[in-house]
Design goal:
The complex is a heterodimer of chains A (284) and B (172). Chain A contains six helices and twelve strands. With 284 residues, chain A is of the alpha+beta class. Chain A has two domains: 59 residues, no CATH class; 158 residues, Beta Barrel (Thrombin, subunit H), CATH 2.40.10.350. In chain A, the strands form two sheets. Chain A has a six-stranded antiparallel barrel. In chain A, 24% of the residues are buried. Classes of the chains: A alpha+beta (284), B mainly alpha (172). Chains A and B meet through helix 2 and helix 3 of A and helix 3 and helix 4 of B.
Chain lengths: 284, 172
């Protein structure tokens, strides 16, 4: 305490000087608008900058927590992105022109979604197995389609699985026509290239060109008319020379086929029974 | 003691009134304004207590501020000069000078007193005009106003000192 008194006694003029200057400066800012405004502006700017530095320092200190939160957010967004990408892929797939045409054509028809469990394209008589059966409402001779075209016809069923006779089978024969005309023909696979099939019996007076679309004719209860089959790739004369034989580039890549639908028409059984009765009457 | 107080009061009133009535209205070339009341602090003899000089300087500056409507500027500047004056005076006078040496042309010599006056008036003008401008945005104008005012103040202080010295010599 004594040392403090001695210090004050020795340097009192410093304290007095500081006090008087403090009073003077206070008076200056208190009674002079110009200096006061500049002081306030400068002080505000300085305080603002100091707060900014403090905030920057705090942000830097908290970067670890921010990084953790961002990482979690990033993982969450990646998951969302994957889910959305899958949904978009499905929606985009379903919205192709062929798909939309098929949807329009398949109105009033029940579609049973199925997944291909076994498949082959290497043999002459290929077969395909799908994971729906009689318990799902699948019956023999029902049509099977995919998002891009016709796949084949159900050959036999069990409770939970069905065997499909795809287009890539020598016994397969699907009634087709050229889009925009009513000239029918039958589409068969020649057993060589799984991407191409042959459409026979197109009359020589029919007008068409390479690239024209081949679709189902609707002359059976298996497939409704207008289902996309493929495009004309090459035109040849038939063996007897009376008609054209068209090589058709199929719309479906059977080797990569995974998701299909079974076409169940309400009156298919009734029509088939009627046809059988008519056949039996004719046989008599 | 009491006559000394009255003498200081006389100089204080004289300089403040002179500043208020005459010198506040002088603006040579729009820049130079004499601030002659700083002469009051040049009169304090060696050995005067520091607190006394500080208080007298502050009061003088404050009064001039009141009459000049520039509160704070003169008080702060005069307080600064009052703080520096004893130190400068001790440096300017010879070591064997008497403890109660009255600063003046006769006691200090022309050059010492001229330097003493020039430094203190320059310090005062610099502080005053810096506080008045409060920014360096117009540094050129500030320098001209400060320099010209300092020159005018310095000349007037030397004139005052010459007159005072002349009167003192007549009395003695």
């Amino acid at each position: 305490m004594n040392a403090l008194y001695q210090f004050l006694a020795k340097y009192y003029h410093w304290l007095l000087f500081v006090a008087l200057e403090g009073i003077s400066i206070t008076l200056l800012f208190q009674f002079n608008y110009y200096q006061n405004s500049i002081w306030l502006t400068t002080a505000n700017s300085a305080v603002g900058r100091a707060i900014d530095w403090q905030q920057q320092a705090l942000r830097y200190i908290h970067l670890g927590d921010v990084n953790k939160a961002l990482m979690q957010r990033n993982i969450l967004l990646q998951q969302n992105n994957r889910i959305l990408a899958e949904e978009i892929a499905q929606l985009t797939h379903d919205s192709t022109l062929s798909e939309r045409r098929q949807k329009a054509q398949l109105e009033g028809i029940r579609l049973i979604p199925a997944r291909v469990t076994t498949n082959s394209v290497m043999h002459r008589d290929n077969l395909m197995t799908i994971n729906v059966g009689s318990l799902d409402g699948v019956e023999p001779e029902m049509g099977v389609i995919s998002g891009t075209g016709v796949v084949g016809i159900v050959y036999m069923t069990s409770s939970h699985y069905s065997i499909v006779l795809p287009l890539l089978n020598s016994r397969s024969n699907i009634s087709c026509r050229l889009r925009g005309t009513d000239y029918p023909g039958s589409l068969k696979w020649d057993g060589s290239n799984p991407l191409y099939a042959t459409l026979d019996n197109i009359p020589r007076h029919a007008r068409f060109k390479i690239g024209d679309i081949v679709e189902t004719s609707g002359y059976s209860v298996v497939f409704p008319p207008g289902l996309f089959m493929g495009k004309i790739d090459k035109v040849e004369n038939s063996d007897d020379g009376l008609s054209y034989k068209l090589r058709v580039h199929l719309s479906i890549d059977f080797a990569r086929l995974q998701d299909v639908c079974v076409v169940a028409q309400d009156f298919q059984a009734e029509v088939r029974e009627l046809e059988q009765r008519a056949d039996s009457l004719l046989e008599r | 003691m009491f006559p000394q107080f009255l003498r200081r009061l006389f100089w204080l009133v004289l300089l403040v009134v002179a500043q208020m009535v005459i010198f506040n209205y002088i603006h040579l070339f729009g820049y130079a304004t004499p601030l002659v009341y700083v002469y009051f602090l040049l009169l304090f003899p060696l050995g005067t207590s520091r607190w006394s000089i500080l208080l007298w300087g502050f009061v003088c500056g404050f009064l001039c501020d009141v009459v000049s409507l520039s509160l704070g500027m003169g008080a702060a500047s005069m307080t600064l000069v009052a703080f520096v004056q004893p130190l400068l005076l001790k440096i300017m006078v010879q070591k064997d000078a008497p403890e109660d040496l009255q600063p003046g042309l006769r006691t200090m010599g022309f050059w010492s007193y001229t330097n003493y006056t020039a430094i203190l008036t320059a310090l005062f003008c610099l502080c005053y005009f810096l506080l008045q401008a409060f920014t360096f945005n117009h540094a050129k104008d500030l320098a001209i106003a400060c320099g010209s005012s300092w020159l005018l103040t310095f000349v007037l202080c030397m004139v005052f000192e010459g007159l005072r010295d002349h009167k003192t010599s007549e009395l003695t």
